[in-house]
């Protein structure tokens, strides 16, 4: 099951490549997500979504989707590329696995292509076996560039949050702009996650027009 809009390559993988291997995906638009409990069946294995999504920056309630999905015996897989682990950690809200295009914020210097998957060992171990045999093993040079990048991830993303908020606020005030879709991360301290793992991520999906 795939919720909302997703990166074009992912859409092709789910819609064109995987069906040839007998793996079918049902697509729900962001507006249809409340139908999820009715659409889940005992054949559903994974519910997948990006939050914020690419390209519309839709926000999904990870904890609520996880509750429905787990009731149906399926796993939740979240693409957290746009949020980054600095702004959101889906595992803290019940998701089973999280993926990232490390080519984006994790890499941050436009000099590498990589991906990452995070989750509990029992789910990652079989993925490592597939990765080895399918050739998705990161080259050592790229891995060392990524390790360099991740050291500065927190300061880069915090600076980008400030800069992007300034741009979004400017646009929201602009007389020729009617709507700004800019999901702003809430101002939570990381410790609150640890104290209350059920705390939901707070996002403000749209900037209000002030005039
Ligand atoms: C949300 C999201 N996930 C995954 C990808 C794929 O990333 P990569 O180019 O690193 O394979 C992209 C690329 O734009 C993306 O936007």
From TrEMBL:
InterPro entries named in the record: Cys/Met-Metab_PyrdxlP-dep_enz (IPR000277), Cys_met_metab_PP (IPR054542), PyrdxlP-dep_Trfase (IPR015424), PyrdxlP-dep_Trfase_major (IPR015421), PyrdxlP-dep_Trfase_small (IPR015422)
BP GO annotations: transsulfuration
Protein name: Cystathionine beta-lyase/cystathionine gamma-synthase
Keyword Lyase set for record: yes
PANTHER family assigned to the protein according to its UniProt record, in alphabetical order: TRANS-SULFURATION ENZYME FAMILY MEMBER
Cofactor(s) this protein cannot do without: pyridoxal 5'-phosphate
Keyword entries, A-Z: Lyase, Pyridoxal phosphate
Taxonomic superkingdom: Bacteria
Region (Disordered): 178-211
Keyword Transcription: no
A UniProt-annotated Pfam family: Cys_Met_Meta_PP
GO molecular function annotation: carbon-sulfur lyase activity; pyridoxal phosphate binding
Family: Belongs to the trans-sulfuration enzymes family.
SUPFAM superfamilies hit by this protein: PLP-dependent transferases (SSF53383)
GO cellular component, one term: cytoplasm
């Amino acid at each position: 099951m795939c919720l909302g809009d997703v990166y074009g390559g992912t859409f092709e993988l789910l819609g064109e490549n995987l069906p040839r291997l007998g793996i079918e995906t049902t697509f729900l638009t962001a507006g249809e997500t409340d139908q999820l409990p009715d659409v889940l069946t005992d054949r559903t294995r994974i519910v997948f979504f990006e939050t914020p999504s690419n390209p519309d920056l839709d926000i999904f309630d990870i904890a609520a989707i996880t509750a429905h999905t787990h009731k149906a015996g399926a796993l939740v897989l979240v693409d957290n590329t746009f949020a980054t682990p600095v702004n959101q950690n889906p595992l803290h809200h019940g998701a089973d696995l999280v993926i990232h295009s490390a080519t984006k914020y994790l890499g941050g210097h436009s000099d590498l292509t990589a991906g990452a998957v995070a989750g509990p060992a029992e789910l990652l171990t079989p993925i490592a076996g597939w990765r080895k045999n399918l050739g998705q093993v990161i080259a050592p040079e790229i891995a060392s560039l990524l390790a360099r990048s991740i050291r500065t991830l927190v300061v880069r993303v915090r600076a980008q949050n400030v800069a992007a908020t300034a741009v979004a606020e400017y646009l929201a005030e602009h007389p020729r702009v009617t709507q700004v879709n800019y999901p702003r991360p809430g101002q939570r301290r990381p410790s609150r996650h640890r104290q209350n793992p059920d705390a939901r991520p707070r996002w403000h999906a749209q900037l209000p027009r002030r005039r």
